[in-house]
Design goal:
231 residues, Dihydrodipicolinate Reductase, domain 2, Rossmann fold, five-stranded mixed sheet, alpha/beta, four-stranded parallel sheet
């Protein structure tokens, strides 16, 4: 993602003035980033929260697409943003198509809530290098169903077809170099309903992140794709 963002940002006329690694935390905290106006953070779940907080401490607006860290660290990141009057944009997926898919998923869940004979599941397929399972996109889809369908109270990571009372199964597969495929299914004894989003590459994610970075300049607070796309 970093390489794709760099290539596309440069094509759009932006300048990459600083590249961070594990040794750059102090530079980020002190704002010593060659005059960077915004940081794009795509690392891993073990380092994301510290990277984001360091940017905020250094007065740098930050856009993050790293998943797998929210459950443990969201509150402290949000607090750091507030205390430092920071600017933070987070999305589990920056693809415009995926965010439209999120909206369709919620509307479908509202409709299916009236038909208890259908049971729901989510399947996601990603490349073998993806560290977290389920993905942030899979979790966002699950949360959209749980919010709008009374049969489900929580999601469960599952690779079987066994029913779980009140739990929405997410089946996570890691294979090859698949950029990202997400499928929402509703099963019944007489038919199935299925919606899906299939990414063809990383460009859609990268372009969305660059749009978010452009949009974030001059704003204060915590934002997401619904703010950017006015959904």
């Amino acid at each position: 993602m970093g390489k794709t963002i760099e290539r596309l940002a440069t094509d759009k006329g932006h300048e990459i003035v600083f590249k961070s690694d594990e040794n750059c935390i102090d530079l980020l905290k002190n704002g010593q980033v060659n005059g960077a106006e915004v940081a794009l953070e795509f690392t891993g779940p073990e380092s994301a929260a510290e990277n984001i907080k360091a940017c905020m401490l250094g007065g740098i607006p930050v856009v993050s697409g790293t998943t797998g860290w929210l459950k443990k660290h969201w509150e402290e990141v949000a607090e750091t943003c507030e205390l430092n009057n920071g600017s933070f944009f987070y999305a589990s997926n920056f693809s415009i198509g995926v965010n439209i898919f999120f909206e369709i998923n919620e509307r479908l869940a509202q409709l299916m809530n009236a038909f208890p004979e259908y049971s729901a599941e989510i399947e996601e397929i990603h490349h073998i290098h993806k560290l977290d399972a389920p993905s942030g996109t899979g979790i966002s889809l699950a949360e959209g169903i749980i919010k709008n369908h009374s049969a489900y109270k929580e999601w469960v990571l599952d690779d079987s077809t066994e029913a779980h009372a009140g739990k929405l199964p997410i089946i996570a597969k890691r294979t090859g170099e698949v950029p990202g495929t997400h499928i929402v299914r509703y099963h019944s004894g007489i038919d199935d309903i299925e919606i899906s989003h299939v990414a063809k590459g990383r460009e859609g994610f990268a372009l969305g992140a660059i749009l978010a970075a452009e949009w974030l300049i001059g704003k204060k607070g915590i934002f997401g794709m619904r703010d950017l796309l006015k959904l």
